Amino acid sequence: MRTPSQETGSVRRFACTSCGRCCTSGPEMELSEAAALADKFVTSLFLKVWSLPLTRRSRGTDASGRGSIRTDEEVLEEHRRHIGRFSVRDRIDRANARSLHLTISVRTIDREKGRCPALIDKRCGIYETRPLSCRAVPLHFSQPDSQLARSLDAFVRLPGHLCDTSPDAAVVLDGDRVTDPSMRQARDAALEMAKADRAWKNAILSLMDDPTAAKAAGLPTYHEVVRNSDAGFASAVSMLAAWRVARDRGIISASSFEEICKKQISLLKTEIERAANLELAGRLAAMLSEYERAYAGVRPRLPMLSSGGE
Length: 310
Fold this sequence. Notes:
Layout lengths: L10 E3 L14 E2 L1 H6 L6 E11 L18 H13 L4 E5 L4 E11 L10 E2 L2 E2 L7 H4 L12 H9 L14 E4 L2 E2 L2 H16 L1 H11 L2 H7 L4 H9 L4 E4 L1 H9 L5 H21 L3 H18 L15
Antiparallel strand pairs: 1-8, 2-5, 3-5, 3-10, 4-5, 6-7, 8-9
Helix pairs in contact: 9-10, 10-11
């Protein structure tokens, strides 16, 4: 085991030691990734509104890791632009001096706390098909470039992490430039996937803007997601709601919808047997019942809305 000794200055070195310590939960994914991994993870649709202040006064911070000084205003605006590449709605809330950014993603429902369900011993059981959020570790694509050095430094210092940051490890970051080809590719691919999934997310959002349509679809309203986010937690519903939106809007075919339901039914039966507690088993059983009804053909059609809007 190498002793972490992260370099100072602009260069950051990193090598994974396969300790498995960062795999403490299942991955967060884009919608289309969840479809591709429907036989691997039981998932929920995950909705959150991120709040950023409109202005921030400061004397300047070394945000890049290269020794150049950027003001907090510049860092804030970079963060706002970056989250805007993943969000499906961006709004200015002048009454509260903030900008709001709605993200729609997918989270796994883990069978036990503190462990990704894909782990086999300490190794990833789906390594070749793992999601982009895993491929980008520890330079996650949710972080803007100027924050990567700070984020990496915090990551390798987490208790229990056995990351190799010695002089023998590869350089992965030089200032705010990602030098590792695989991590850079994962970050770029995440942006492209977010763009490709935008039509699907907009279809979900169009239902969330109408309380009646949202209830029929099993979705929260946009305002409910804002309230929940302001209270400090995200909104999560069964991923079946998203599959139905995709089917009824022609984003996936009826046969693809049925195949996804079939995969989730099989996986849910296995996960119920492995569930760590009765509460989780009951939650999974309720989801299983929903998927079985959907697969059997009890698939309520969603109302067709001409346009979104509040």
